[in-house]
Amino acid sequence: MKQYSTTFATKFAAFAAALFLAGGAFAAEPVKVETENTMMLFEREQSAAGERLYLRHFGPKIADEAGALALAVKSGPISSLGTDNPLAYPVFGESGRWINRFGGLKVTHDNGTVTLDLIVEKIERDGEALKVRWRDAVHDFRVIQTFRPRADADVVETWVELVNGEKGAVRISRMSSFALVFPMLANDWRLMSLTGEWGSEGEVVDKPIERGRRIVLDSRSGIRDAWLNNPAFMLSIGGPSTETDGRVIGCALCWSGAWEMSFRRSEVDLLEVVGGPANVAGDYVLDSGKSIKLPVAALTYSENGKGQISRNFHRWARRHWMPNGTKERPTLLNNWEGTGLLFKESEIVKIMDGAKSVGVEMFVLDDGWFGLGEHLRNTDDRGLGDWYVNREKLPNGLAGLADEARKRGLKFGFWVEPEMANWGKCDLLEKHPDWALQEKGRPMRLGRGGTQVVLDFTNPAVRDEIWRQLDAAYSSVPGLAYIKWDANSNIENVGSTYLDAAHQGNLYFDYTMGYYDVLSRQRAKYPNLDMQACSSGGGHMEYGSLRYCDEFWTSDNTDPRDRVKMQWGASMFYPACAIASHVTVTGRQVPFKYRVDVSFSGRFGFEMQPKSMSPRELEFAKNAVKEYHRIRPVVQQGDLYRLVSPFEHDYSALMYVDGAKTRAVICLYGLSRDTRKNYLPPLVLQGLDPAKRYRLRELNTESWRWPHSPLLGKCTDFVAEMEKGAAVPTGEALMKMGLPVSLGDKDYDSAIFELIAE
Ligand code: DGJ
User: Fold this and answer.
1) Cα–Cα distance for residue pair 575/200, rounded to 1 Å
2) Contact of 651 with 674, CB cutoff 8 Å
3) Mean pLDDT across the chain, nearest whole number?
4) Is 487 in the pocket of ligand 1 (CB under 6 A)?
5) 535 CA: nearest ligand 1 atom
6) Which has the closest alpha carbon to 231: 533, 542, 532?
7) CA 536–ligand 1 middle distance (angstroms)
8) Comparing C-alpha atoms, which of 345, 704, 252, 324 is closest to residue 527?
9) Which residue from 2, 394, 483, 486 has the least number of CB within 10 angstroms?
């Protein structure tokens, strides 16, 4: 670790001399964090109390750093925000002439003082990372702020650790992983984020932040933390941005519990953005001598609109964040939509036969395989908490099923819901009723099935027992390849018998840390297990879970038309390899091809009885699976370019390009289009090599595809010509003129194209 500053309360002369003695080169070294294309540039300043640090620039790299610092707007007009020159970690209190009324951190010290006054103790390098050690000027309360660049993805991971050296407990009412204030950078700010609920995840909302207003995105569920609001956003600077244009900041909070992010645009255009875990149940009480590490927030910046922000997140997630992010994700068939809870071993084996004939690589057994005694999981009101095989349903156990899968060349995985139990309907809670979250003296609020409750994961004994059961189930299955970890509740009973009265406010944070504790034990013991994070569908579509899991279940809504929008929304922040997308039997009558094509823009799979496919559909599915396996590296690991938004048009298109720009996959989806306005402009492609020539193939074609409008025969002919190799356009032409395409004039038509460089 290289130290290039000095301790707090040093007067400037002594400070400079000390640096000179310690190696004057450090004194000139700017405080910055750089990625390949972006930088965060900080400025140090001395005050009577000690050194302060300010963030002056977060954006494109600027070679002349001194010039950049001179140009940076250091302070805006006096604002009711309070401070006009906020620290690199703005807090409630601060040190200036005016109090900062907001900021990312608000504590009450052990003597009752309610403000903070942070000065820099030390600035260190930890490899590429920058560590700023802050300390309150009076109290022994420290903040260690880290910025870790991921250069090749243009992402900076940042987080803070709070350390209580005071004699007594410190109460923390607001704690943020990141806190950014931009004084007078722009007078038009737009916030894009995702909203949704059960079945409506991934809806894109992009609205201005009005002057004088505060917008809060949050989740108070404690578990389904990606509903209502998803813990990620894009902020357009100085006006609306598009997929390809505009200055944009992207941020994802890597957290799976309650959280809050707020955007306060002052009356004089300071913008304060703070975000971190939310203390829904009250102040977090940090005891003397203890520390707490807040979750990572991933920050990124683009000069070229939102598409680049997404690609930065995707690359970062695959290369730096997810456990096995660069590994190809398997195709699978899950039995949930096909059987629900009621199945027999023989039926599951038949489904495996179907999975084998379709050609997928894995079979996943969903809910219903477990339970004890009276509490066998044949209905959804019982069995959670008892992770023992139900031998009535599965006489040969999970291992027997895994063996059947192996015989068919399939990998095997299964479903668990470890954080949950059924009140009065599981052995675990009969023995340990105090292991459920509960409020003293109040009746229990009971969820799914009229009995579901959340286990007290703040309690290590609960986590140990659940992990003991899971580990026993996992290790009973030779070659276990996949676990789907579900969570179908919010924290409904806000109380813990494990935490004492003084620490009940810690419940939400400690609960989520408990979730991570069990996930990390699982990851440590089974490093190559594929893991899906699920929470009643897309309740865990976030990077906290993706630190341990390989994908999320995007939504229980598998209607393909809805999925076009949801997956578009999810792709704003999350890579295709993490977006589980299964072909199902849906309420709406949608052609099989369309259902399959939509699932191609994610981690492809099926969730249906293969026997419900017609022979024609089965043939189509077999061929599609083969094609997906071929194009999988491009879709799962390539760069995504969103071409036509389903939120703005009656069709949608996106494309993926591999790193060498030698292969691309284009997905085109019609969305209930008007018959007489069926004129599609050419798809202006992106991300190709202008100099390369590309051959085109259409995948997933089928003879009963609805005929294209005769008006568009020419376009179809062109594609046919390209397919024959008569036309082999350059990347330049495809990106400047576009690819002529057409869609049929019925409600659903879709196409998947592949481009291969010659
Ligand atoms: C909710 C999930 O989202 C579904 O996919 C399924 O696993 C059920 N739970 C099982 O209870």
Assistant:
1) 19
2) no
3) 92
4) no
5) 3
6) 542
7) 6
8) 324
9) 2
Q: Token pair of 505, please?
A: 């406010």
Question: Does 534 contact ligand 1 (Cβ within 6 A)?
Answer: yes
User: Which residues, listed in sequence order, are joined to residue 272 by a DSSP beta bridge?
Assistant: 181, 264
CA 341 – ligand 1 centroid, Å: 10
- pLDDT (tens digit per residue) in 153-210: 999 999 999 999 999 999 999 999 999 988 778 999 999 999 999 999 999 999 999 9
Cβ(289)–Cβ(164) below 8 Å: yes
Cβ atoms of 335 and 364 within 8 Å: the answer is: yes
Contacts of 200 (CB under 8 A, 6+ apart): 555, 557, 562, 566
384 Cβ closer than 6 Å to some ligand 1 atom: no
Residue 513 Cα, ligand 1 centroid: separation in angstroms? Answer: 23
Whose tokens are 């260190």? That residue is 124
Strand partners, 455: 436
Give 185's DSSP letter: S
Angle subtended by helix axes 592-599 and 560-571, to nearest 10:
10
User: Taking a C-beta distance cutoff of 8 angstroms, is the pair 290, 518 a contact?
Assistant: no
Closest CA to 405 of 341, 476, 481: 481
Q: How far is the CA of 561 from the centre of ligand 1 (A)?
A: 21
Closest ligand 1 atom to Cα of 484: 7
CA distances to 216, 341, 345 from 393, rounded to whole Å, are 48, 10, 6
* φ, ψ for residue 355, nearest 5 deg: -60, -40
Q: What is the pLDDT of residues 246-275, one digit of tens each?
A: 999 999 999 999 999 999 998 888 899 999
Cα three-residue angle 268-115-41, rounded to 5 degrees: 55
Q: Quick: pLDDT tens for 654-704.
A: 999 999 999 999 999 999 888 776 678 999 999 999 999 999 999 998 754
Report which protein residue has its CA nearest ligand 1's atom 6.
336
Q: Is 366 in the pocket of ligand 1 (CB under 6 A)?
A: yes
Note the pLDDT of residue 19. Answer: 39
What does R_g of the chain's alpha carbons equal in angstroms? 27
Q: Could you identify the residue written with the tokens 């999925």?
A: 563
Give the tokens for residue 256.
């799976």
Q: Who contacts 217 (Cβ-Cβ below 8 Å, separation ≥6)?
A: 193, 229, 231, 233, 260, 261, 262, 263
Q: For a pocket test of ligand 1, which of 370, 553, 566, 606 has the largest count of ligand atoms closer than 8 A to its C-beta?
A: 553
Six-digit token string for 274: 């703070």
Q: Which residue has the tokens 């594609």?
A: 719
Alpha carbon distances (Å) from 474 to 101, 388, 468, 470, 480: 51, 11, 10, 6, 7
Paired tokens of 168: 């007594």
Terminal C-alpha separation, the chain: 49
Instruction: Evaluate whether 405 touches 480 at the Cβ level (below 8 Å).
Output: no
